[in-house]
């Protein structure tokens, strides 16, 4: 990992954030990712890679949510036919 | 007994159908997640369990349906008012409204424990304030890194600015730059410190996954049972 520095760095606040803590968080993040989350790759992936993949994954999820909400909005709008009964039963509690 | 039970069971059956479909869609849902839904003490397993428990699914799908109901009510009134509005444009606006409603429902089911959920809920009100403040903040580090290269020897004022910026870890190495990019993606985390961003990101990813699963099964449910519109 390129982020390992031996000399101390000033952090902006009063508490010194430990590298181990950050490493743990990065590992936890890696486990969530669909491609890097497997156990056999726990040591060989750099933090930069994990972060890059995390950003890409979040962007993908955002895009997916946008697509699905568009489809959902079309379905809600065009539902004047037979499935209106189904929707009404779902939407009116 | 039958009368009072019918509407809830109707909803329950459809929502449990949603929930069952979601549970079958999610690849890994360990059996411990059900047991962990009650225990809040464990730090590591808690976030995993939180967004995968059945209780959370039901919670979210109920809120989502409520939110969509509001969207539908709002859009149907405008639809009947302006019958000649072109479908693609209206669909885009409604798609955005649906997405915002879904995000809000997601943020609410986070129960206010995370930064991003609070930011989503607060964003509805403070949108204008944020838009004014952000551009100034992001320009400053970029400008002073250029200055740092050329103006390191030039004098007191510039040097002071450089040193202030250097204290901000996020402008230098690759990892920290990526972390700040990640912070911009997660709502409400643009200015946070590194561990905060990482933690928020883990929670946010799981919540987003749940949102995607829930909305997908809702779409399947709604579109699977009707013939396509001609």
From TrEMBL, chain A:
<dbReference type="InterPro" id="IPR011598">
    <property type="entry name" value="bHLH_dom"/>
</dbReference>
<dbReference type="InterPro" id="IPR044293">
    <property type="entry name" value="PRE"/>
</dbReference>
<dbReference type="Pfam" id="PF23174">
    <property type="entry name" value="bHLH_ILI"/>
</dbReference>
<dbReference type="GO" id="GO:0005634">
    <property type="term" value="C:nucleus"/>
</dbReference>
<dbReference type="InterPro" id="IPR036638">
    <property type="entry name" value="HLH_DNA-bd_sf"/>
</dbReference>
<dbReference type="GO" id="GO:0040008">
    <property type="term" value="P:regulation of growth"/>
</dbReference>
<protein>
    <submittedName>
        <fullName>Transcription factor PRE3-like</fullName>
    </submittedName>
</protein>
<feature type="domain" description="BHLH">
    <location>
        <begin position="6"/>
        <end position="61"/>
    </location>
</feature>
<keyword id="KW-0539">Nucleus</keyword>
<dbReference type="GO" id="GO:0046983">
    <property type="term" value="F:protein dimerization activity"/>
</dbReference>
<keyword id="KW-0341">Growth regulation</keyword>
<keyword id="KW-0805">Transcription regulation</keyword>
<dbReference type="GO" id="GO:0006355">
    <property type="term" value="P:regulation of DNA-templated transcription"/>
</dbReference>
<keyword id="KW-0804">Transcription</keyword>
From TrEMBL, chain B:
<protein>
    <submittedName>
        <fullName>Transcription factor bHLH148</fullName>
    </submittedName>
</protein>
<dbReference type="InterPro" id="IPR011598">
    <property type="entry name" value="bHLH_dom"/>
</dbReference>
<dbReference type="GO" id="GO:0046983">
    <property type="term" value="F:protein dimerization activity"/>
</dbReference>
<keyword id="KW-0805">Transcription regulation</keyword>
<dbReference type="InterPro" id="IPR044660">
    <property type="entry name" value="IBH1-like"/>
</dbReference>
<keyword id="KW-0539">Nucleus</keyword>
<dbReference type="InterPro" id="IPR059002">
    <property type="entry name" value="IBH1_N"/>
</dbReference>
<dbReference type="Pfam" id="PF26576">
    <property type="entry name" value="IBH1_N"/>
</dbReference>
<feature type="compositionally biased region" description="Basic and acidic residues">
    <location>
        <begin position="45"/>
        <end position="57"/>
    </location>
</feature>
<feature type="region of interest" description="Disordered">
    <location>
        <begin position="1"/>
        <end position="58"/>
    </location>
</feature>
<keyword id="KW-0804">Transcription</keyword>
<feature type="compositionally biased region" description="Low complexity">
    <location>
        <begin position="25"/>
        <end position="41"/>
    </location>
</feature>
<dbReference type="GO" id="GO:0005634">
    <property type="term" value="C:nucleus"/>
</dbReference>
<dbReference type="GO" id="GO:0000976">
    <property type="term" value="F:transcription cis-regulatory region binding"/>
</dbReference>
<feature type="domain" description="BHLH">
    <location>
        <begin position="159"/>
        <end position="208"/>
    </location>
</feature>
<dbReference type="GO" id="GO:0006355">
    <property type="term" value="P:regulation of DNA-templated transcription"/>
</dbReference>
<feature type="compositionally biased region" description="Polar residues">
    <location>
        <begin position="1"/>
        <end position="17"/>
    </location>
</feature>
<dbReference type="InterPro" id="IPR044549">
    <property type="entry name" value="bHLH_AtIBH1-like"/>
</dbReference>
<dbReference type="InterPro" id="IPR036638">
    <property type="entry name" value="HLH_DNA-bd_sf"/>
</dbReference>
């Amino acid at each position: 990992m390129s982020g390992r520095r031996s000399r101390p760095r000033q952090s902006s606040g009063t508490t010194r954030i430990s590298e181990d803590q950050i490493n743990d968080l990065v590992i936890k993040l890696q486990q969530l990712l669909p491609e890097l989350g497997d156990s056999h790759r726990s040591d060989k992936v750099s933090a930069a890679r994990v972060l890059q993949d995390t950003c890409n994954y979040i962007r993908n999820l955002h895009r997916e949510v946008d697509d699905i909400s568009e489809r959902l909005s079309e379905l809600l709008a065009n539902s004047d036919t037979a499935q209106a009964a189904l929707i009404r039963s779902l939407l009116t509690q | 007994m039958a009368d009072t039970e019918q509407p809830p069971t109707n909803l329950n059956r459809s929502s449990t159908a949603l929930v069952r479909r979601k549970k079958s869609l999610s690849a890994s849902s360990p059996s411990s997640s059900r047991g962990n839904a009650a225990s809040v003490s464990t730090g590591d397993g808690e976030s995993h369990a939180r967004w995968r428990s059945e209780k959370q699914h039901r919670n979210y799908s109920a809120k989502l349906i409520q939110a969509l109901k509001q969207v539908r009510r709002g859009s149907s009134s405008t639809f009947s008012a302006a019958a000649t509005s072109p479908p693609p444009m209206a669909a885009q606006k409604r798609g955005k409204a649906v997405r915002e409603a879904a995000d809000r429902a997601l943020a609410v089911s986070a129960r206010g424990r995370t930064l991003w959920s609070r930011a989503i809920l607060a964003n509805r009100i403070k949108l204008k304030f944020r838009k004014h403040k952000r551009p100034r903040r992001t320009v400053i580090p970029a400008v002073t890194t250029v200055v740092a290269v050329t103006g390191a020897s030039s004098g007191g004022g510039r040097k002071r600015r450089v040193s202030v910026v250097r204290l901000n870890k996020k402008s230098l190495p690759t990892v920290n730059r990526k972390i700040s990019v990640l912070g911009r993606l997660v709502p409400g985390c643009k200015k946070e410190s590194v561990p905060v961003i990482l933690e928020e990101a883990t929670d946010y990813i799981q919540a987003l996954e749940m949102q995607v699963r829930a909305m997908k099964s809702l779409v399947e449910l709604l579109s699977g049972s009707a013939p396509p519109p001609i």
